[in-house]
Specification:
The chain is mainly alpha-helical. It has six helices and two strands; from the N terminus they run αααααββα. A hairpin with a 5-residue loop joins strand 1 and strand 2.
């Protein structure tokens, strides 16, 4: 191949590279036509997310009634939901989120195991507001047994599949 042929081939390659470059550039949309902007899909807010955020808010404002994880949960006073709902607006929570937050807090192993007969119940400030009765302690025990039975059943089903 001679120099003339190489120069022509180089010019041809440069021309095709320029065409590809201009073709890949975004062009402005014609007047009146909106250009589609690709954005990541918005994550839908679920009630579980809202309840978890409500629990975090309750833990921040009432740390004695809603202690963080390594600390065991404490039995809450009977009717504490009314107290939380009365303060929900000042905490920045909707009534629904506050209700679901308290519901989430009072379900689960950590709460049911703290329901021991004679244990002290606390209000939002952490002050003594009664004691756990024998019937309430039995209810907590039965709830934990039910949870464990469901979990064992789930594990057995997973192993059989």
């Amino acid at each position: 191949m001679g120099f003339e042929q190489l120069a022509a081939l180089k010019a041809q390659l440069n021309q095709s590279a320029k065409e590809q470059k201009t073709a890949s550039r975004p062009t402005s949309a014609p007047v009146g036509v909106a250009r589609e902007i690709k954005q990541p899909p918005k994550r839908l807010r679920t009630s579980a997310d809202a309840a978890a955020r409500a629990v975090t808010t309750l833990q921040r404002h009432f740390p004695r009634a809603f202690p963080r994880s390594p600390t065991p949960k404490v039995p809450l006073k009977v009717g504490i939901l009314k107290d939380v709902l009365a303060r929900a607006a000042s905490l920045g929570l909707s009534e629904r989120d506050a209700r679901n937050g308290v519901k989430l807090w009072c379900r689960g192993q950590r709460y049911w195991t703290c329901l021991v007969e004679g244990a002290v119940r606390v209000d939002l400030a952490g002050a003594v507001a009664g004691a756990v009765t024998a019937a309430e302690a039995e209810y907590g025990t039965s709830q934990e047994k039910t949870r464990l039975a469901r979990r064992r059943e789930q594990i057995a089903n997973d192993r059989s599949n």
